[in-house]
Structures are given as C-alpha cells and as structure tokens.
Write a structure and sequence with these properties.
18 helices, mainly alpha, 3 strands, three-stranded antiparallel β-sheet, about 525 residues, Growth Hormone, Chain: A
Length: about 525
C-alpha cells in the first residue's frame, strides 16, 4: 500500500486538538496541588489522602485505557474509530474540569468526596476517551512514518502552547481574584481555559477526518477473534511495555517537577514569579528543539536523537542540582532541559504508530486503539504518581501555607523533587530506549496474516558500516548501525529473501532508501 500523508492543514488542525486537551491536563496536574494547599487549605491528613486518591484514580485510569482501546477496535461509525470517541468526550470533559476547581466553601469531607468523584470522571472516563481516541486517529490520517514524525513535532509545538497557558496561571489567578486563596480568581481562569480547550478540540474534530483508504484491506468492524488476536499480539510484544515504561518515567518527572515548581520558586529562590518565568522562557529552547527534531531524526536516526535529548535533559538537572539556590543556574538548567524534553516528548508519541505497523506486518492485524493505549497508560500512571508524591511529601515535610518562613525539611524536599529526583530518573529512560532497535530493525515479516518469514537487507555506507532496513519502512523505530565484522558474520544478506519490489529499490543507489 502506498504511503498516504496528511496535508499541512490537517497537521495544524490535528495539533489544535492536542493543545486543547493538554491545556486541561497540564493545569490539572500542576495546579490541583496548589489549589488544595493554598485555596482550600485543609488538614494535613486530607492532603495526604487526596494524594492517595489521585494515584488510585490514575491506576484505574491506566487500565481503563486498555478497555478504551478495545472499544475503539470494535467501533465502526461514519466519524471513524478514534475520531468518534474524541468528539463524544469533548463537552463532558470540559464541564467536569471546570467544577473540579469549584469546591471551596464545602466542608473538608464534602470537598474531598466531590474532588474524588470529579477527578475520577475526568481522568478515568472522559480524558481516557478523549486521549485514546485522539492518538488512535494518527495512524489513520497518515501512513507515512516520516510524515507521522512531523505531525508529532507540530503536536509538541502546540502542546508547548498549552503548557505556556498553564505557566501564567499564578499571576492571572492573582489578577482575577486578588490572591491564590480567593476562589473567584480560580473560577475565572479555569473558565478561560475551558473555553480555549473547547475551541482547540472543536477545530480538530471539525476539520480532521480519518482516511479509510489507509487500511483498504481491513474489515470495517473487527471480529471477536481478530480483536483477541490483536490483543495477544500486542501484549506479547516487549515494545508495548517499553513504551508504557518510557511514558511513565517522563510524565512522572514532568508532573512532579511542575507540581513542586511553585514551592521551589517561592521558598528556595525566594521569588514566586520565577515559577511563571520557568514555564515561559524554556519555551524558546523547546521551540528550537522541535524545529530541529525532523532534521536530527533524518540525519542521526530516532535512536540517537532521543538519546541526545535525554542527555540534554540530564545535563540541565545536573546544573540545577549543583547550584540549587542560584537563580542564574536555575534559568540555565530549565532552558537546557526545555531543549531536550521537547525532543523527547515529540519522539515518544511516534511509538504508537510504529507499534501499529510492526504488529500488522508481524501478525496481520491492526491495533490502533490498543497501541494508542500504551501512550495514555504510561502517561496516566506517571503523572498520577508525580502528583501523588508531591501531595504526600508536602505535609510530611511540615510545609504550612500560612507561615512566612518554611522549615529546612520543606526546603530540602522542594530541591530534591525539582532537581535531584529527575537527575537520577533519566538514566533508566535511556536504558529502556536501547532495545527498541533490535526487532523493529532486524526482523522482516513477509507474507499474509499468520505467515512469518525472516530476512535482512543491508546497504553499505561510508566507513564500512551497514544499516539494517526493514521490509516495511514504517515498521522501523530506529535505524541501527552495526560493526562490519559482526554484520558480516551474523547478518549476511539473503538475496532470495528480498521481494522483487524491494529488490529493485534495494539496488537503486548507495545511501538511498527505496
């Protein structure tokens, strides 16, 4: 099947949908802690219990992603698979989000129960429906892997816009309500965010449509046997679990840092306005990183681009952890982190389409909804854990919003969560990314459903390195280079294993992918 690309307009409109949902997600992850500790100011046990509730909701939420993926696989409507559920979820998602930040005036028990119910509805039901549906649309609006990488890059740019909106929340809430303790400021700002989110998601739903010609051989509605086969194929694939783990780590780091950022700026650096600055200025380096991402991927491969970006994030954390009380070092640290984190997140979102193509080539079934659940599953677990840890540690470190000076236990906790925990969590992410190249690159699945045949192609490049190329270019997540001797001994080219259509392109010139 010929690769089908999305138009530039489709890329932009699709990104509007991501921006709309991320405005809500980023604000909820970053500010639910601030809303509870600064505006509601309940007892310490309530704050700790709320952290546990959030984590439990996210655990349910993560498993609901799998269920939603199954539902999407069984869905057949005029709006498509993922697009149908994306559209259905928009209005209830926004309504629940608004009332999550409208509970002041209730007693502690009433506020806790209300937040529990609304948080469950937002994360477990409506955001799952929205996010899985949105991600499942990607492999059905473009089947070209490089084009999908560009879509994810544009997505990340618009996601950064959503992050910037959340970054200015503290001064806006103060301007609208006088201070963070006043419910009026929260109400007006949350209403503004809800309107922006609705506009972004409505644009996406109205102007981006799934392309049925991408999967011309697929049955319009999956049978129970095909669905079971798809689930079995996905769950036995190690890359599904690697994708979940990488999303979990990155969203844990993101939400824990954002959740503690206001406290770090106010009590360690002694300037609350730096919290806003640390959300705005890294946008410059994030934009640079996103603009460079397609060029870096094309020149160095996804693998080395991703590893370089993770190293960049680690460098920023090292700078900040060495000089945690320095404003200048903090600026340098967050700017360097911004450059790396933008590239990391843009590339993580290409995992789902790669899984779809890999499993289709290997087992003859397409699993858009189930593969998209890997993204959302890791995202929910990681962000829930990040928010919960902040809510657990704030009362344990003796933080008190009414004090003019916080104890040293609180200061050290803020520094540790902002710099030291991310510093030591990046190496596992690099380790998890390492094995992604092997089967995606070195195995080639040929034939129809259930028929597997392994083969390898090699092209010679300069300096005697050989690049492994998959039968279906879209199956490859990374392009691996292998030492010539190892390549010669173990990965000799089998000319008979190369189909005629690929053999023609295989010999079309050194350094060119057919």
């Amino acid at each position: 099947m010929k690769n089908i690309k999305a138009s530039f307009k489709e890329k932009i409109f699709y990104a509007f949908g991501n921006m709309g949902s991320y405005i809500l997600w980023a604000f909820l992850g970053a500010y639910v802690t601030i809303y509870v500790t600064e505006c509601l100011q309940p007892d310490k046990w309530v704050i700790s219990l709320l952290g546990t509730i959030i984590l439990v909701c996210r655990l349910f939420d993560a498993f609901s992603d799998i269920l939603m993926g199954i539902i999407i696989e069984k869905t057949h409507s005029k709006q498509g698979k993922g697009r149908f559920w994306f559209g259905v979820s928009i209005i209830p998602l926004i309504i629940v989000f608004f009332f999550l930040f409208y509970v002041k005036g209730m007693d502690q028990t009433g506020a806790l129960i209300t937040i529990l119910i609304l948080y469950f509805l937002f994360t477990v039901v409506f955001y799952t429906m929205n996010n899985i549906g949105f991600n499942a649309m990607l492999p059905r609006i473009s089947s070209d892997p490089y084009d999908q990488s560009n879509i994810c890059t544009i997505n990340s740019i618009f996601t950064s816009v959503g992050s910037l909106v959340s970054a200015i929340a503290v001064p806006c809430i103060k301007a609208l309500g006088g201070n963070e303790q006043n419910q009026a400021g929260w109400t007006w700002f949350v209403l503004i965010l809800a309107v922006l989110a609705f506009i972004g998601q409505a644009i996406c739903f109205a102007f981006v449509k799934e392309k049925p010609e991408i999967v011309v051989a697929e049955k319009q509605k999956a049978s129970r046997e095909e669905l079971a086969q798809g689930m079995k194929a996905l769950f036995k694939t190690p890359y599904f679990y690697i994708a979940i783990a990488m999303f979990t780590i990155n969203y844990f780091l993101s939400l824990s840092v954002i959740g503690i950022g206001k406290y770090y700026a106010q009590w360690v650096l002694l300037d609350e306005n730096l919290f806003t600055a640390f959300g705005l200025y890294p946008g410059l380096t994030m934009g640079l990183g996103l603009l460079l991402t397609p060029l870096l991927v094309k020149k160095f491969s996804k693998k080395w681009t991703l590893f370089g970006a993770i190293g960049c994030v680690a460098l920023g954390n090292i700078i900040g952890s060495i000089w945690p009380y320095s404003v200048a070092a903090a600026y340098v640290g967050v700017m360097v982190k911004g450059l790396g984190s933008a590239i990391v997140m843009s590339q993580l979102y290409t995992l789902a389409p790669d899984l779809v193509r890999y499993i289709e080539a290997k087992d003859g079934v397409r699993v858009e909804g189930l593969a998209a659940s890997a993204n959302s599953f890791g995202c929910k677990i990681g962000s829930g854990l990040g928010t919960a840890i902040v809510l657990w540690l704030i009362p344990l470190c003796d933080y008190d919003a009414s004090l003019t000076e916080q104890p040293q236990s609180a200061i050290y906790t803020f520094i540790a969560l902002y710099w030291w925990v991310p510093r030591w969590a990046e190496p596992p992410s690099s380790f998890l990314g390492q094995p992604l190249e092997y089967q995606f690159e070195n195995r080639r699945f040929i034939g129809g459903k259930g028929q597997k045949r392994f083969g390898r192609e090699r092209k010679r490049f300069g300096f005697g390195f050989a690049v492994e190329i998959s039968e279906n270019q879209g199956c490859s997540f990374y392009y691996s280079t292998i030492i010539p001797a190892v390549s010669f001994l173990f990965f000799k080219t089998d000319e008979k294993a190369i189909p005629a259509v690929r053999k023609a392109s295989y010999t079309n010139g050194v350094g060119e992918r057919g």
